[in-house]
Amino acid sequence: MILDLHTHSDASDDSRAPVETYLKWLARKRDVLPIDGIVLTEHRQWNPAQDYRRLEDHYGILILRGAEVETDYGHVLVYGVNADITRRFDFSDVRLAAQEVITAVTHMGGIALPCHPGRPTIGLCAHYATKPPIEGVVAVEALNGGSRRGENERVQHLIERYGYRAVGGSDSHLVSHIGICATEFDRDIHDVEELVQALHAGGYRPVDFRNGLRQGAR
Amino acid sequence: MPGSDFEHIDVGHELQPLRLTLTPEQVRRYAISARIPAGRFLNDEAARLEGLPGQIAPGNMSMAFFSRLLRESFPGTRLKRLSATFRVPVRPNQPLTVRGVVTEKHATDHGDFIECDLVLESEDGERWVTGTASVHVPPSSEA
Amino acid sequence: MTVSFDRSIIGREFDHTELEPITAEEILEFIAVTGETEPPPALADLVAPPTFVVRVRGQRFVPPNLAGVTSGLDAGKDIEFGVPIRPGDVLTSVSTVHDIYEKTGRSGIMSFVVLRTVVTNQRGEQVAVIDQRMMFR
Predict the structure, then answer these.
(1) pLDDT in tens, A80-100
(2) Is B124–A25 a contact, with Cβ atoms under 8 angstroms apart?
């Protein structure tokens, strides 16, 4: 099963992509983008009332939700957001403590993964150069569709040194960028709880569809 | 663009790209014409005084090229909405490509609409400006 | 150190300016510098390209009480277009602070102020609504 784990709809301040238009695009591009589902990871926010089940049923594409928050070690994707997590962390705060986020989100039933680790300032690699590593990191986003040349490649060293697993996501802010990078899971995933379990357990890898052909992440 | 042509535009249709290289003089003239004659848009020396490596083009200029791409791709239509994010400063004397792709089309009682993603990219494909647009295709009776 | 803005200024109008009439020469120069390849129409049919509206600037570009800053970097725009601009049009711009937020990026923590400008012509018709994202560090 292939999921794009990192996407932004027009609910994020710098995206202009309506969710339904994402799904229409994926439905038309299935031959080159075999994406089974997307995870909406809006910037610095969480809306508990948002419900995409009607769109899921209409387009046959799984829609899950997470969030992208900002910490002292860069940006982090949070999956399995629940009331306990949102009571503990103000997602609009751009100065969250990464170690607290990673540890507490795990204890509260979710999982937090550093995203675009190779990106300057807001990626893990830059911070690991001068600060101790974060405890409890299970996986990092080794393949990010919005990263610039060299930024994804920089992550390999991190993965090898610390034994992190690797995921992929498009980081799409435009409709036409959805699904260009994603994560392939060995198991089926039907909801956020199963996603969190799968990310903890392993059995997944980044996949790259940027050139119109499926490629594994280098 | 007559209403009948709208039906032949598919989601995924890629617009014929615009390829251009801005000259320093063109950037300077645009900045003056657009009433933003800040030093960084006028010449390299003034830009360096502002801490930049050299002259840059105003973000608005990129939007003008998005608008031009859409007008040339869909003649007879009217631009209803245009958005842009200025990710990296655009500098003169560097080959640029302005691309667009149709992401949505929908028909209404007031005419049809085409939605596009837009990108201004460098010679090596780095996305310097990204954007979206909504283009109104008037009914055939008004074409 | 990042700039900190007072969110109570959101919604507050900070500029209301009536501009000098638009001239055909201004429109033609704008067309020329954006590389339009078709010859412009006759003056009677001359209409400004849509993005011509970005040159509409009031007397104040940022609110006067914006934490001591007077200029930032243009991070992007969202423009809704209304009726076209023609020579002779007298435009009025009204600007308010639409939103304020922080985010982090490659260059560190940034403060964003979204300035909304509504442009109307002498007939009261809406020409454009421009949301400009200004970035401050």
Answers:
(1) 999 999 999 999 999 999 999
(2) no
What is the CATH architecture assignment of B3-21+57-142? Roll (3.10)
Rounded Cα distance, A215 and B16, in Å: 28
Given CB atoms, is B63 within the 8 Å cutoff of chain C?
Answer: yes
Give me the total of CB pairs closer than 8 Å, taking one residue from chain B and one from chain C.
77
Pick one of 3.40.640.10, 1.10.260.40, 3.50.50.60, 3.10.129.10 as the CATH number of C7-136.
3.10.129.10
Does C74 touch chain B if contact means CB atoms closer than 8 Å?
A: yes
Which residues, 6+ apart, have CB-to-CB distance to A106 below 8 Å? A112, A136
> CATH 3.10.129.10 in chain B, residues?
3-21+57-142
pTM for the predicted model, two decimal places: 0.92
Average pLDDT over residues B32-57: 92
Q: What ipTM score was computed for the predicted complex, to two decimals? A: 0.92
DSSP label at residue C66: S
pLDDT tens for residues C29-62? 999 888 765 666 788 889 999 999 999 888 887 8
Contact C30 B34 (CB under 8 A): yes
Q: Which of B46, B59, B50, B45 has its CA nearest to residue B87? A: B59
At B78, is the pLDDT very low, low, confident or very high (cuts 50, 70, 90)? Answer: very high
Measuring CA to CA, which residue among C133, C70, C100, C98 is closest to residue C4?
C100
Of A13, A95, A120, the CB nearest to C101: A13
Per-residue pLDDT, C45: 87
The matching CATH number, chosen from 3.40.50.11740, 3.40.50.300, 2.40.240.20, 3.20.20.140, for A2-216 is 3.20.20.140
